[in-house]
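Researcher: Structure prediction, please.
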Amino acid sequence: MSSASGGAAPGTGGGTAEQRQRGIWILVAAALAFAVLVLPQVVEGDDKTSFAGSFVPSGGASSPPSPGGLPGRAPTGLPSASLPGYGSGGSGSSGGSGGGGGSAETQAPASPTVAPDPTAEAYQAVSPGDCLAVYDTGYGDYNTQMPAPVDCGAGKAFMWVSAVRSSGGACPQGPGQNYMAYTSGGRTTALCLTRQFKVGYCLLAEQTGSGQQARMNAGLMTVVDCEAKRVPARYNRILHITGVYKAPANASAANCARVQGDRTYYWSWVVNDGRTLLCTMVYQG
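Model: Predicted structure follows.
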């Protein structure tokens, strides 16, 4: 019957529409599933990636800190290898620029040459305990400014050096003691002197008054020819050393007598810090 075959065609056409509608629902369901399940994960992954870097403060970008807390950039103010005196530098040749240590050394000004001072060297060569052929001339100076040590047993060993100081004021002062000093280059060398008295030698003195009122002021550091015809103006007597003794208690000229009943008129001084009695008489020729 044609009716039966006619019914089959509509059934086929209706099945195709139903399948088409079912496919649409499947597509809608897939889109919903994608929106619900997949899309949030993609967005979340992008958000996590955006927070992986360092925080950039407002006002401009800056480099991230280096490991260990060190700054990301090299600190300013440190010398670079191109500055003079750092790194390998140049060879230091004349007229060159920059350069290392060699350049600075070759360009340094030469130290001034100090001329030798023989007198200063002579003073500095003297040591305590030395003896010197030095004496006061009576004219306000010593016979030499070049103190050369001599044997202390020599006849011309007039002075014994008790100390060497940086100023004359630091030397002992007393009868038969004085100093000689020399300054060079801001350095002073003072030789502290103690007179070595020898029997038979003569020294200068000034006498004032006469008889019982006579007074004698001796230049204990002086040496003079016993028979000199002229003496410095400040002196008027030549004294002859008759004895050099260990000073007894209450020493005086009375202790200078050389023989019993000696009637010589003596002049005496206690010298060498009170340890020595010096006996003299006016030279008679």
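Model: The longest helix spans residues 2-50.
Researcher: Thanks, that helps.
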